[in-house]
From TrEMBL:
Name under which the protein is recorded: Receptor-like serine/threonine-protein kinase
Listed GO CC annotations: membrane
Coarse class of the protein's main subcellular location: membrane
Reaction equation(s) it catalyzes: L-threonyl-[protein] + ATP = O-phospho-L-threonyl-[protein] + ADP + H(+); L-seryl-[protein] + ATP = O-phospho-L-seryl-[protein] + ADP + H(+)
Record lineage: Eukaryota, Viridiplantae, Streptophyta, Embryophyta, Tracheophyta
UniProt-annotated location(s): Membrane
Any GO molecular function: ATP binding
Signal peptide (from-to): 1-20
Binding site for ATP: 540
InterPro entries from the UniProt entry: Bulb-type_lectin_dom, Bulb-type_lectin_dom_sf, G-type_lectin_kinases/EP1-like, Kinase-like_dom_sf, Prot_kinase_dom, Protein_kinase_ATP_BS, Ser/Thr_kinase_AS, SRK-like_kinase
Keywords: ATP-binding, Disulfide bond, EGF-like domain, Glycoprotein, Kinase, Lectin, Membrane, Nucleotide-binding, Receptor, Serine/threonine-protein kinase, Signal, Transferase, Transmembrane, Transmembrane helix
């Protein structure tokens, strides 16, 4: 038994010695799993390598951590080299390699490089006893080190120079970019709140000003800034006790406080080892300077209170409110009741709602109306009867009343708050989910939408429509003159490839794999026998009638001249005998329909980009190509996604064309139920505004990730366009994105998009914006600072025939 123990001890010492080697040679590598997952410093205090992410055993950080503390505290983690760096994490099977050319490369399981420090020519790497992992030159100088690229923590002997930053984590267990930033500038050190997930900095909430040359965490445990005249100004007061007996770090914590910590190196029981706070800034973050944008220190509708006993800030919700996410409290609070509808009269509002007082609490920047002089009772009554008012504040000394609306920002609790605050809640604390609106308008509009859906879905009426099309030849548009039939590729004069039918039959394996079907024919997947093995989508138009042949001619002539990032590109065609086929680029990710209404919700930022992409594609069709094109059937099935999830409009070749000097055309009904503009059911001309209406529906579907018509939904939510209008009028667009954390964090943008959609959905086509205006309103980079409030379509039904 003794020899076995001795052998085990020797193997352990040998393994530790190998891991703790001072110089890491070229060609060395690490993997997330197995014995070679990290490199130790010679002292064994620090490790550099792969660290499993808490709660996700198959995902890893590339990190530096204290290896001898009980929690193995992480002090550095890799981020991208972008202007706004984001967290890098990899899965099992990844590899970190110190290449023979002296470059460090992190590769995913496929061998694709996902991170590198952009340094070559190192002759070795080292995990130093200071906690700095370095790539070193032949003379021992540092070519790159973690100390020069900090995450959220600095260590003794580490120096920051102007331009270097610390970014907090979002929560202690999630290393993604958080809501706070320490920025060292030439004029001082500043703490900022940041818009997540971007790097947009709001106003700073704490600072230490001066002509600064560096921020130092020195070997004696003091953090200070050095001015250009040599003066040192302490940021923290330093530590007590020997640096030899304690580990030290200073971290910008997820709550926005910059804290200096120490942890005993020697303890009798490892479980008793813990970090304790030495000093922190600001002294009370709840009283820190207000930010004009964003939610402030805590989330929207939440308020901050400071616990001096443990030096912690705490975020709380008012009565009858609760956190959107208990673990991620920065997301703010939501009411546990249905907020007041703007359709309630004063008597009904007084019966259903009440105001409850709160002392020493305030949201200073949410005011939208002020009254003075006024009594406290009048102040409460004014808020109670105002559907926008969520909170009233009364100041006894000067008899002033302020009304506040949601979302409430910069909330705080403190003894220095001298005003009385009243929060509006329901008397019965109801959690009902219905939205009260204009019942007549909603019921009539619902009947119209459901009726139109049934109308378009009825096979009898469809046959009548098709008969009308044949008799009057007015399917989608009137053309000024007869379009000549397509006889051969030479008549087209377009830079499109003329495919032989046999070539396409071979490419599609006999037209076996169906991608989709439409009114004009079936679409098949194929692969060309070229050098690249190009995948294609082939639309085969069967049973070609005379009118259909003209549509085919129009499509080829138009799409061949139409090129835009957000339109599906036509590669070629086939015109042999009675065979009419179109060859398109293949869209790897299929249609938006399968992603938008599937089990997995697309990220909010991606959905916003998709909406803007579709808008730009329609803008091109309506205003920028040589001949105006009205699509007439905009729906998620006709929006395809390439490998980069770029939205591309398809099937627009079958929409009829308008000459540039024409403004409208009379037509038979075209389109898909749920997306059809109301003018299709009237004796008025059809313009490009029908596409604008359909886009408005799709925009709401992109916002909410649900179909426009869902008969299984609650009564007031069956018709998405109705529900969205109600939520917008009541100031509760957050209901539309409930459970969507990213969208909740971007409520201002969500509200902007909903407003644009409601403009697009105006019953009167002349009230709808052009796609140029829609694009400008959606694109925050354009010169449209705000979107005006769209008219409430309360008279919508009265104008229907």
């Amino acid at each position: 038994m003794a020899p076995l123990l001795l052998l085990s001890l020797l193997l352990l010492l040998s393994s530790t010695s190998l891991q703790a080697q001072q110089n890491i040679t070229l060609g060395s590598s690490l993997t997330p799993e197995g014995p070679s997952s990290f490199w130790l410093s010679p002292s064994g205090d620090f490790a550099f390598g792969f660290r499993p992410i808490e709660g996700n055993t198959s995902s890893y950080l590339l990190a530096v951590w204290f290896d001898k503390t009980s929690d193995k505290t992480v002090v550095w983690y890799a981020k991208t080299n972008d202007p706004d760096p984001v967290l890098v994490h990899v899965s099992s099977g990844s590899q970190l390699l110190l290449n023979s050319n002296g470059a460090l490369s992190l590769q995913d399981p496929t061998g694709t490089e996902v991170w590198n420090p952009r340094v070559v020519g190192a002759v070795y790497a080292a995990m130093l006893n200071t906690g700095n992992f370095v790539l070193a030159a032949a003379d021992g100088s540092t070519k790159w080190g973690t100390f020069n690229n900090p995450a959220d923590t600095i260590l003794p002997t580490q120096v920051l120079t102007p331009g270097m930053k610390l970014r907090s984590r979002i929560i202690p267990t999630d290393y993604s970019n958080g809501r706070f930033l320490l920025d060292l500038q030439s004029i001082g050190v500043f703490l900022y709140t940041v818009a997540v997930p971007s790097g947009k900095m709001y106003d700073y909430y704490w600072s230490m000003a001066g002509n600064t040359t560096k921020l130092v965490f020195n070997a004696t445990g003091m953090v200070y800034i050095t001015l250009d005249n040599g003066t040192q100004i302490s940021v923290t007061s330093g530590v007590t006790g020997s640096m030899l007996d304690y580990y030290h770090r200073a971290t910008l914590d997820p709550d926005g406080v910059f804290r200096q910590y120490r942890c005993p190196k020697k303890v009798s029981n490892l479980s008793s080892q813990a970090w304790s706070v030495v000093d922190f800034k600001p002294p009370n973050i709840c009283d820190a300077q207000l930010t004009n944008d964003g939610s402030g220190i805590c989330g929207f509708n939440s308020y901050c209170t400071f616990n001096g006993r443990n030096n912690q800030s705490i975020c709380l919700c008012p009565e009858q409110y609760s956190f959107i996410d208990e673990e991620r409290k920065y997301k703010g609070c939501k009411p546990d009741f249905q907020p007041q509808s703007c359709d309630l009269d004063e008597a009904a509002a007084s019966m259903q709602f009440k105001l409850i007082p709160m002392n020493s609490v305030d949201w200073p920047l949410a005011d939208y109306e002020e009254y003075s002089p006024i009594t406290k009772d009048q102040c409460q009554q004014l808020c109670l009867t105002d559907c926008f008012c969520a909170v009233a504040v009364f100041h006894d000394q000067d008899n002033t009343c302020w009304k506040k609306k949601m979302p409430l920002s910069n909330g705080k609790m403190g003894d220095n708050v001298e005003r009385t605050l009243f929060v509006k809640v329901r008397k019965n604390n109801s959690t009902q989910a219905e939205l009260v609106g204009s019942n007549k308008w909603k019921e009539d509009k619902k009947n119209w939408i459901l009726g139109s859906s049934l109308f378009l879905g009825s096979s009898v009426l469809v046959n009548i429509l098709l008969t009308s099309v044949i008799l009057f030849g007015t399917y989608c548009t009137i053309t000024v003159k007869e379009i000549p039939s397509l006889q051969s590729s030479n008549n087209i004069g377009l830079p499109l490839k003329a495919f032989a039918y046999a070539e396409l039959e071979k490419a599609t394996s006999g037209f076996q794999e169906v991608l989709g079907t439409g009114a004009s024919g079936i679409v098949y997947k194929g692969q060309l026998q070229d050098d690249l093995g190009t995948y294609i989508a082939v639309k085969k138009i069967d049973k070609l009638e005379h009118e259909t042949e003209k549509e085919f001619t129009v499509e080829v002539q138009t799409i061949g001249r139409t090129h835009h990032k957000n339109l599906v590109r036509l590669l070629g065609f086939c015109n042999e005998g009675k065979e009419r086929l179109l060859v398109y680029e293949f869209m790897t990710n299929g249609s938006l329909n399968q992603f938008l209404f599937g089990d997995v919700r697309l990220e909010w930022n991606l959905r916003a980009q998709l909406a803007l992409g579709v808008a730009r594609g329609l803008l091109y069709l309506h205003e920028e190509c040589s001949t105006q094109i009205i699509h007439c059937d905009i729906k998620p099935q006709n929006i395809l996604l390439d490998g980069n999830f770029t939205a591309k409009i398809s099937d627009f070749g079958l929409a009829k064309l308008l000459r540039t000097n024409q403004t409208q055309t009379n037509t038979g009904i075209r389109g898909t139920r749920g997306y059809v503009a109301p003018e299709w059911f009237k004796s008025i001309g059809i313009t490009a505004k029908v596409d604008v209406y359909s886009f408005g529906v799709i925009l709401l579907e992109l916002i909410c990730c649900r179909r426009n018509v869902e008969l299984e939904a609650e009564e007031d939510q069956k018709i998405l366009t109705d529900w969205a209008n109600d939520c917008y009028r009541c100031g509760r667009v957050d209901f539309l994105v409930e459970g969507d954390d990213e969208a909740i964090l971007n409520l201002m943008k969500v509200e902007r998009f909903v407003a644009v959609a409601l403009w697009c959905l105006q019953e009167d086509p002349t009230m709808r914006p052009t796609m140029l205006k829609v694009t400008q309103m959606l694109d925050e980079a354009a010169a449209v600072p705000t979107v005006p409030t769209p008219p409430d379509p309360s008279s919508f039904v009265s104008s229907l025939p």
